[in-house]
C-alpha cells in the first residue's frame, strides 16, 4: 500500500510538471496574417506575385487579381477583395496619427487601414517610457486591421486610396470622443466611407461603413473585415514559458475556438464557417484585437494563409441590395487593447475568453474575481496574491490537516517499516503482509495524505493560469526590488527562496523506504525549482507563499501529534 501511495503521489507530481512544462515550452506553431505589404523585409513575410499567391494583394502599382463574384464564400480559393484605381492623380497617401487618453493609433489613407497601435497605460518592457506597440506595419512586423467591399465588379477595398476628411486628431480636455473619416472615390458606381469613432477611456472603436450607390443600377456587395498578422514571435515573449498566439473566433453555438497558425498552414482548420453572432480575433499574451459585428447579422468566417508566414482571420457579411442613389450603413466594433477581463465582458458576449485560462476556466474565473476584489482593498497586486493564497489555504485547512496528519503518522511508523523491509527484503509477499499488519495495528491509512492533495491540485493550477494570463501583473510592483510582477526577479531572490522552501518541505515529508525513490524525491523538486528562475515574479511569489503556509501547517500538526520535526536529508552515497 505504501508503494501504491507513492505511485499516486508521483502521478500527481508528474501531472503538475507536465502542465508547467507545457507552459515552459516555446510555442513553435506557425503564426499568421492576411494581405502583405510590398515593403516587408526578409524578417517579415515576403509578398508573392498574384500568380504564386492569388489571395495576396500587393501595394499600389502591383498586379491586382480580377474581381470575384459577390456570392463567393470564404472557403473558395478565389475569395479576395479586388483592387481599385486611385481616386484622383492628386490624392496622396498619408499616415494619420490619432491620440486618446489610452491609445495612439495610426491609420493609412490607403484603404483607411489601421496599421499601428500603442497603449498609453501599458509600457514597453524594454523602453519603459514608450507605450507598448501591438499592431504595426514595418520592415519587421505586419499586424493590421483591414476592411473593404467585394462584388461582381471592382469595388473599394483596403488597397483603394482614400481621402482623409479633416477633423480632430487628439482627444481634447473635456472632449469625450473624436472621429476619423476616410472616403473613397466612385468605383463602378460605389463609394465607401469609413468612420472610426474613438471614445475616452475606451479600447473599443465604433467603425461605421457607409456604402453609397452613386450609379444608376442596384448593387449587392459584401463587406469584409479582417485581421492580418505575420507569424513571428511577439516581441518580448519569454522563451521559458508559452502562451497562445494566433487567431480565434467566438460564436454562441461553438463558443471560443482557437486556431493555430500551423493548422492554417496545413489547411486543417475545423471551425464554424457561418454564424450570425460572435467575433473574430487575434490573440497574444496580455493583448488582443477583434472585429465584432452586431448580433443577427449573417457572416462567413474565414482563415487564410496569404503568403509565406502570412495569415488572416476575418468576416464577410452580405449586404442587402442597395438601390441606385441610396446608402447602406453597417455598424461594427473594433477592439484593440489589453485583456482586462471586466472591460472585455462589457464590450461583447464572450470577448473575455480571449484571456485564455485553458481547460480550468470554470475555476480560474472566480479566482480572478477574488484576486481583483482583494486588489481593490489592498491596492497592491503582490500582496493580493499573498492574501489569495492565504484564503485558499484557510478554505482547504481541514483537507490539508487530514493530509498532514496522515503524513505525520506515516513518519512516526517509518522506522518500523524500514526495519521490516530490510528484514524481509528477499520475501516480497511476507513483506507486503507485514506492512499491512503494521498499518492495521497503528491505524494508519497510507492513502490518507494523497486524496486531500489531489482535490486541491486543479485549484492551484487554475490560479497559476490566472497569474500568468492577467495583464494587471504587467509593470505592477510589489516591494523593494520587485518592480514588475510579470517579469522574472532581476536578482533571483524569490527563486532562491522558493528552492529553499521546496527543499525544506521535502525534508519534512516521510522518506520513501526505497533509496532510489528517496533520491528522486530530492532531485525532482530541485529541477522543478530551477524552472522558476525564469518565471514571472508573481508566479514565484504565489508558489513561495503556498510553500511557507504548507510548511507552517505541517509543522504545527506534527508537533500536536507528538511527532517532533525531523529532517529527512538525502543520502547520495
Keywords:
573 residues; alpha+beta; 9-stranded antiparallel sheet
Distance between the termini: 28 Å
Our estimate of the beta-strand percent is 15-25%
How would you write the strand order of the largest sheet? 7-8-9-10-19-16-15-12-13
In quaternary terms, these chains amount to single chain
**Sheet with the most strands, sense and barrel status:** 9 strands, antiparallel
Helical content stands at: 25-40%
**Total of DSSP H or I helical runs spanning 4+ residues:** 11
Structural class: alpha+beta
CA radius of gyration: 30 Å
Mean pLDDT: 78
Q: Which residues form runs of ≥5 with pLDDT under 50? A: 1-90
Overall strand count: 19
The backbone outline, from C-alpha atoms, is elongated
User: What is the string of helix and strand elements?
Assistant: HEEEEEEEEEEEEEHEEEEEEHHHHHHHHH
Amino acid at each position: 500500500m505504501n508503494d501504491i501511495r507513492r505511485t499516486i503521489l508521483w502521478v500527481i507530481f508528474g501531472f503538475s510538471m507536465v502542465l508547467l512544462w507545457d507552459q515552459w515550452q516555446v510555442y513553435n506553431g506557425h503564426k499568421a496574417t492576411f494581405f502583405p505589404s510590398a515593403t516587408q523585409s526578409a524578417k517579415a513575410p515576403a509578398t508573392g506575385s498574384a500568380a504564386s499567391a492569388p489571395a495576396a494583394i500587393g501595394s499600389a502599382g502591383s498586379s491586382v487579381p480580377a474581381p470575384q463574384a459577390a456570392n463567393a464564400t470564404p472557403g473558395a480559393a478565389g475569395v479576395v477583395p479586388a483592387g481599385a484605381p486611385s481616386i484622383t492623380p492628386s490624392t496622396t497617401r498619408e499616415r494619420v496619427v490619432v491620440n486618446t487618453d489610452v491609445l495612439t493609433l495610426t491609420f493609412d489613407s490607403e484603404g483607411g487601414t489601421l496599421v499601428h497601435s500603442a497603449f498609453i497605460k501599458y509600457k514597453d518592457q524594454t523602453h519603459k517610457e514608450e507605450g507598448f506597440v501591438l499592431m504595426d506595419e514595418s520592415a519587421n512586423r505586419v499586424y493590421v486591421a483591414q476592411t473593404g467591399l467585394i462584388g461582381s465588379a471592382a469595388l473599394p477595398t483596403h488597397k483603394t486610396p482614400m481621402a482623409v476628411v479633416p477633423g480632430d486628431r487628439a482627444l481634447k480636455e473635456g472632449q469625450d470622443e473624436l472621429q476619423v473619416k476616410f472616403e473613397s472615390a466612385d468605383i463602378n458606381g460605389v463609394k465607401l466611407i469609413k468612420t472610426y469613432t474613438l471614445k475616452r477611456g475606451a479600447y473599443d472603436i465604433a467603425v461605421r461603413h457607409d456604402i453609397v450607390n452613386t450609379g444608376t443600377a442596384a448593387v449587392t456587395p459584401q463587406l469584409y473585415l479582417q485581421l492580418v498578422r505575420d507569424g513571428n514571435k511577439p516581441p518580448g515573449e519569454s522563451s521559458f514559458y508559452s502562451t497562445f498566439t494566433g487567431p480565434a473566433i467566438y460564436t454562441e453555438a461553438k463558443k471560443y475556438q482557437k486556431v493555430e497558425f500551423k493548422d492554417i498552414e496545413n489547411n486543417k482548420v475545423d471551425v464554424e464557417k457561418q454564424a450570425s453572432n460572435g467575433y473574430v480575433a487575434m490573440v497574444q499574451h496580455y493583448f488582443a484585437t477583434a472585429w465584432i459585428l452586431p448580433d443577427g447579422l449573417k457572416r462567413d468566417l474565414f482563415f487564410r494563409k496569404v503568403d509565406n508566414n502570412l495569415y488572416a482571420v476575418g468576416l464577410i457579411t452580405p449586404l442587402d441590395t442597395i438601390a441606385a442613389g441610396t446608402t447602406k450603413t453597417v455598424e461594427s466594433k473594433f477592439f484593440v487593447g489589453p485583456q482586462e477581463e471586466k472591460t472585455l465582458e462589457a464590450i461583447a458576449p464572450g470577448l473575455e475568453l480571449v484571456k485564455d485560462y485553458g481547460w480550468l476556466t470554470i475555476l480560474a474565473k472566480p479566482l480572478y474575481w477574488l484576486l481583483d476584489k482583494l486588489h481593490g482593498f489592498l491596492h497592491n497586486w503582490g500582496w493580493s496574491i499573498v492574501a489569495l493564497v492565504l484564503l485558499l489555504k484557510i478554505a482547504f485547512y481541514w483537507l490539508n490537516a487530514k493530509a498532514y496528519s496522515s503524513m505525520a503518522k506515516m513518519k512516526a511508523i517509518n522506522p518500523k517499516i524500514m526495519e521490516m523491509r530490510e528484514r524481509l527484503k528477499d520475501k516480497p509477499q511476507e513483506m507486503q503482509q507485514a506492512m499491512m499488519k503494521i498499518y492495521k495495528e497503528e491505524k494508519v491509512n497510507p492513502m490518507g495524505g494523497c486524496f486531500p492533495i489531489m482535490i486541491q491540485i486543479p485549484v492551484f493550477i487554475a490560479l497559476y493560469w490566472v497569474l500568468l494570463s492577467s495583464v494587471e501583473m504587467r509593470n505592477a510592483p510589489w516591494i523593494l526590488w520587485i518592480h514588475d510582477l510579470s517579469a522574472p526577479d532581476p536578482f533571483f531572490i524569490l527563486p532562491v527562496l522558493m528552492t529553499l522552501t521546496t527543499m525544506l518541505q521535502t525534508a519534512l515529508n516521510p522518506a520513501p523506504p526505497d533509496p532510489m525513490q528517496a533520491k528522486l524525491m530530492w532531485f525532482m523538486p530541485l529541477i522543478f525549482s530551477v524552472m522558476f528562475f525564469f518565471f514571472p515574479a508573481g508566479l514565484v511569489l504565489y508558489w513561495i507563499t503556498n510553500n511557507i503556509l504548507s510548511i507552517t501547517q505541517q509543522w504545527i500538526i506534527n508537533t500536536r501529534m507528538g511527532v517532533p520535526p525531523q529532517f529527512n536529508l538525502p543520502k547520495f552515497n
